[in-house]
Amino acid sequence: MIKGLGVSGGSAVGVVALVAQPEPLPDEPPSTDPTGDLARVEEALEAVAARLDQTAESLSGDAAEMIAAAAAIARDPGLLEAVEGFLPTLGPAHALHAAVEGYAEQFEELGGYFAERITDLLDVGARAEALLLGRPMPGVPELSEPSVVIAHDLAPADTAVMDPALVVGIVTEAGGRTSHTAILASQRGIPAIVQAKGALGLDDGLRVGIDGDSGELVVDPDDAYLAEKENKRRARDRISERSGPGRTSDGHPVMLLANIGNVADAELAGAADVEGVGLFRTEFLHLSADTAPSVEKQSEEYGRVLTPFGSRPVTVRTLDAGADKPLAFADLGPEPNPALGRRGLRLMREREDLLDDQLAALAIAAADTGALVKVMAPMVATVEEATWFTERVHAAGLPVAGVMIEVPAAALRARHVLEVTDFASLGTNDLAQYTMAADRMVGELSDLLDPWQPAVLDVVAAACEGGRATGKPVGVCGESAGDPLMALVLTGLGVTSLSMSVQRVPMVRWALSQHTAQECVHLAEAARAAESAEAALAAVHAAASTELTDLL
Asked: What is the 3-state secondary structure (H, E, C) of 471-510?
């Protein structure tokens, strides 16, 4: 058995399909025609970008955005300029490789959003090199039977187009809880494990079982293993047929909401049995644009997002961009630590026009559709920031304003923050990052970023105490909300709503229905009393209902 970090739940059995590492470049003399070779490299990069564009057009949500971002990297003029600088001493393929490696080092130093793009950058380079050399395109091999894909890491261009009928599991030796592989696998319902050291040592075609909840990869599983996993699969299928609002077994309400990122996501979630939207990420109109989208353009797209939900509430996060998610039309310059820089609301306070246009567009869309729109700001740290944002939202004609609690300062002062605004929503990924001083993009720090870390739960508890003191709702829209056991703990801490990928809702709904509100409180107390993330999970697993834990 190989143990990794489970990042997308469920189990499956299939044959190993190894993703080969790129072959070393062949010997190549220095360029004798730098102008011509530069044109060849540019043509190869544009061909890669065009293929990525075509793939992005066939997808939606995070997958489309990630692949569009990779296409933008392929068209980055700076990359081509770097290639040009190497051509006098290297051949075209080697010059491209050197340019990509140099860019990757810069991305790593910048951290944050840029570090998140390194896998995309290396994938773009490998694809363009293959075109220059006439080699087969790198990536997942062609599959003919249900397979568990094993790689060092996977680019979004590979993960986003995987057919769940053939790719029944994903295992990588790199990656982390918030890596592209983890996010996309979860959205596509494919069990996945990251940080599984030694997995690449398995042979192609070997039969393996994968458990995306426990993070275990079992080689050559026996009949007992297969029977256990099949029973769990059937039970989960039955659970997925249940419907209705989120409730504990004694009737305590916990709203079950969806996370969405664009119109396609909204149409999918609108047709699902959810009580509304807990997080609508609005960056899809901004990140790939050269100029700020107009109020008219925004209101049209927001209206298309709001329509599928009718009278159900839609919580909109205003533009979460800035130093770590650079905008072509709002460049505030480089920063040494983008994760701690002018992002989210901090950018909006320097570019008030962007926020005002977005709020105006949301007000128009809300009026046109009759939707219940709640607006919240990311990266809020102080009461003064919360006051400024709330006043601006209300002035725009939008009645409900809230804040994201991602910074421990906002959680510790939640009572004061909530006195000046209408609600709060916890972004547990960033909250864990800032609480534990651990970069989300460093897979080796995944143990610190575990939402089961008792310190993180203590910070969540502080935010919920602020909600109780003010009578204001506090939700969670981080991926941890979709973990059935964590959902129980969050409910016990005082969270009033849970927002997640649509696919995760049925299991969370059922988990809540198996426990009373007081039992959830006891589970939360057990988790906070533990000395480590592993011990916290173990304590909750031991105390939760066996009907639930038997399925995990």
From this structure: CCCEEECCHHHHCHHHHHHHHHHCCCEEEECHHHHHHHHH
